[in-house]
């Protein structure tokens, strides 16, 4: 049997060093504050700027960092779960495109600064070869290339870009289609070497990973083995490559007895309760090794409104639930939602 992937040992750091690092660590957004706030750390003070100044300088010091820690922190893992049609794939794509267009904008700003500093300095490097890149892994066929291209085009139009921006965004998106479990296993083993050759990739999207890990299509031993490899891989990628990972997975219906123990439909207990739980379970999550893990469920209420709720997080976040809607660009804030009103109220007070 093949030996599992070796996991690195994390170096020890002081609490102050960890906090300073978190304040300057890149964050990833899906351009929807109702979802971004679920993975954003809660302010540690009534005055967020003062809380940051405690770490980086005295209150009122111009060198003190402002509190802008919004979005998914680098080298963390986010699992998006929910029923079909809840928007998991579109939300994951929103993270990918927002990352690429932010990289393009940052590259353009850097080029403008270089021109101001030295008009004679010519730089032929295109925006597609600078900034953060994304690897998209489509395991079910929901993340179609046509959908990616169409959404990128709309995103460019929305941000005032043109066809060159669309091409630059797509040039930084790497696409991989997984059609069966053998290709999934091959991906798990080849990904570290692939990332060594593509060091600009900082975000990994694994869409519909559960489509090849359903209990009905695999033996229990094979499924356990794959989840163990996924566990080791995530630990390795987040620590060695500082890779941010976003997975989308389905929900599974399971029966539990009154004591919370799993049971079956053929069981004798008539008081069993059917619950929807994440289909991947918990064994693949390397939380005991220090990985920051978030789990968000996307779902509908009885009136058909889109809702989101935080199920797991490494610490307090700005909020634990919210309302959102979906347009051609992906998830966005609902103008009449309480989440939108709360964010606006908070911004007016800061």
UniProtKB/TrEMBL annotation:
UniProt superkingdom: Eukaryota
Give its localization. Answer: Nucleus
Q: Does the keyword Ribonucleoprotein apply?
A: no
Asked whether the keyword Cytoplasm is assigned, the reply is: no
- The ranges of region (Disordered) come to 106-132
Keywords for this protein: ATP-binding, DNA damage, DNA repair, Nucleotide-binding, Nucleus
Name of the protein: BZ3500_MvSof-1268-A1-R1_Chr6-2g08622 protein
Q: Which organism is it from?
A: Microbotryum saponariae
Q: What is the lineage of its organism?
A: Eukaryota, Fungi, Dikarya, Basidiomycota, Pucciniomycotina
């Amino acid at each position: 049997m093949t030996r599992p992937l070796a996991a690195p040992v994390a170096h020890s750091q002081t609490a102050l060093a960890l906090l300073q690092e978190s304040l300057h660590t890149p964050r990833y957004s899906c351009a929807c504050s109702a979802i971004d706030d679920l993975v954003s750390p809660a302010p540690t003070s009534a005055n967020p700027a003062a809380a940051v100044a405690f770490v980086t300088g005295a209150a009122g010091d111009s060198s003190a960092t402002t509190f802008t820690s919004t979005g998914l922190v680098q080298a963390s893992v986010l699992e998006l779960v929910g029923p079909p049609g809840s928007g998991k794939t579109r939300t994951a794509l929103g993270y990918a495109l927002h990352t690429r267009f932010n990289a393009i904008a940052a590259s353009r700003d850097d080029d403008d600064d270089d021109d101001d500093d030295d008009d004679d300095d010519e730089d032929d490097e295109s925006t597609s070869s600078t900034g953060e890149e994304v690897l998209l892994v489509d395991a079910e066929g929901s993340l179609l290339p046509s959908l990616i291209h169409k959404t990128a085009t709309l995103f460019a139009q929305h941000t005032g870009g043109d066809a060159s921006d669309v091409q630059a965004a797509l040039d930084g998106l790497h696409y991989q289609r997984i059609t069966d479990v053998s290709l999934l296993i091959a991906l798990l083993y080849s990904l570290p070497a692939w990332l060594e050759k593509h060091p600009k990739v900082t975000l990994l999207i694994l869409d519909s990973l559960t489509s090849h890990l359903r209990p009905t299509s695999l033996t229990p031993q094979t499924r356990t083995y794959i989840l163990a490899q996924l566990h080791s891989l995530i630990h390795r990628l987040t620590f060695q490559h500082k890779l941010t990972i976003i997975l989308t997975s389905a929900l599974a219906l399971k029966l539990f007895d009154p004591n919370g123990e799993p049971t079956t439909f053929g069981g004798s207990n008539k008081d069993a309760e059917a619950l929807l739980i994440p289909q991947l379970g918990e064994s693949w999550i390397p939380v005991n090794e220090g990985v920051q893990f978030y789990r968000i469920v996307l779902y509908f209420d009885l009136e058909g409104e889109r809702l989101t709720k935080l199920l797991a997080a490494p610490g307090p976040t700005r909020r634990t639930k919210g309302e959102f809607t979906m347009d051609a660009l992906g998830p966005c804030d609902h103008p009449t939602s309480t989440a939108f009103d709360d964010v606006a109220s908070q911004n007016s007070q800061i």
